[in-house]
């Protein structure tokens, strides 16, 4: 089953730390961006999942979190959908 894209990403940017992490661990960031955009929020608590679902209606910020061993990558799309940032939690 193909899932539809739920929102625009806008301009996609990354922190240097996240880029280094992606390269070091051979992570396909396009797959993560796609998961984020179709509503596969990764490893989030129920409250954050509900917040994302509400954000689709209210045009609020959307956060996804994907775990890799002991680390994780966050993807955050701003409320106005003009910018999506790939970052590590330590970059926040």
Could you walk me through the main structural features you see in this protein, from its secondary elements to its overall organization?
- With about 90 residues, the chain is an alpha+beta fold.
- Helices cover about 35% and strands about 25% of the residues.
- The chain has helices at about 15-25, 30-35, 45-60; strands at about 10-15, 60-70, 70-75, 85.
- The chain has a four-stranded mixed beta sheet.
- A hairpin with a 5-residue loop joins strand 3 and strand 4 (about 85).
- The chain is globular, with a radius of gyration of 13 Å.
- The termini are far apart.
- The model has no long low-confidence stretch (mean pLDDT about 95).
Low-pLDDT residue spans: none
Strand order of the largest sheet: 1-4-3-2
Distance between the termini: 34 Å
Shape annotation: globular
**Approximately how much beta-strand content do the residues carry?**
25-35%
- What is the SS-derived class? alpha+beta
Summary, kept brief:
This protein has helices at residues 16-24, 29-37, 46-58; strands at 11-14, 62-68, 71-77, 83-87. By secondary structure, it is α+β, with helices and mostly antiparallel strands.
């Amino acid at each position: 089953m193909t899932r539809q894209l739920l929102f625009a990403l806008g301009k996609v940017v990354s922190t240097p730390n996240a880029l280094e992490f992606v390269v070091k661990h051979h992570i396909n960031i396009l797959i993560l961006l796609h998961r984020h955009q179709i509503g596969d929020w990764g490893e989030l608590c129920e409250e954050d999942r509900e917040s994302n679902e509400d954000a689709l209606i209210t045009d609020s910020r959307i956060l996804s979190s994907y775990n890799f061993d002991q680390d994780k990558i966050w993807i955050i799309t701003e409320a106005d959908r003009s910018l999506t940032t790939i970052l590590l939690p330590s970059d926040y």
